[in-house]
Amino acid sequence: MQKFFTGLMAIVTFLSLSGCGYNSIQAQDEEIKAQWSEVLNQYQRRADLVPNLVKTVKGYADHEEKVFSEVAEARSSVSSIRATPELINDPDAFAKFQAAQGQMTSALSRLLAVSENYPQLKADAGFRDLQAQLEGTENRVTVARNRYIEAVKQYNITVRSFPDNLTAMVFGYKPKPSFTVDNEKAISTAPAVDFGDKK
After folding, report:
1. What is the pTM of this model?
2. Domains of the chain from N-terminus onward
């Protein structure tokens, strides 16, 4: 008889959890993790381009040490942050991650601006190829970030809405941080890459 009641309680618990948002929260949490992985993949792709880009620029503009050191410092800052899935549950760690990526974006913009002073560098096929790869990666970063933002938005709505918020409280699900930008247009506009005059 006790087994019957235990089984019945398990069925009732299952049905009540599925009806109060538990499954939705689980699915949305997994979606956030998947989108976060894609954000990290694209940021890693960008970081992997940096050494070759710096090396190419140094070949033509070796006295631009300030810019090179800014890029090296930004890359070091990015790689010092352990971007684990748990990071998206910690608003402070997430803010540090976002600040480090912003520093990298600024440093890369300054590095690319150096090419304006060196016509031979702008004409270099290897440099132009790296610029094209960087532009493509920045576009992918923007898309991945937007998808992550949308996944977090849906999840946060769920864990804050009644009655799903009760389930979220019981199981310890809290709203997750999302990307923010100082300039709202920056999130949908990839950095411009000037390829110079094409002939």
Report:
1. 0.76
2. 17-187 (1.20.1440.20)
* Helix, strand, or coil (residue 174): coil
Greatest mean pLDDT among 39-48, 119-128, 183-192: 39-48
SS3 letters across the chain? CHHHHHHHHHHHHHHHHHHCCHHHHHHHHHHHHHHHHHHHHHHHHHHHHHHHHHHHHHHHCCCCHHHHHHHHHHHHHHHHCCCCHHHHHCHHHHHHHHHHHHHHHHHHHHHHHHHHHCHHHHHCHHHHHHHHHHHHHHHHHHHHHHHHHHHHHHHHHHHHCCCHHHHHHHHCCCCCCCCCCCCHHHHCCCCCCCCCCCC
| Counts for the chain of helices (H) and strands (E), in that order | 7, 0
pLDDT tens per residue across span 160-187: 999 888 888 888 999 999 987 653 444 4
Neighbours of 72 (CB within 10 A): 14
For residue 182, the one-letter residue type is D
Where on the phi/psi map is residue 172: left (φ > 0), alpha (ψ -120 to 50), or beta?
A: left
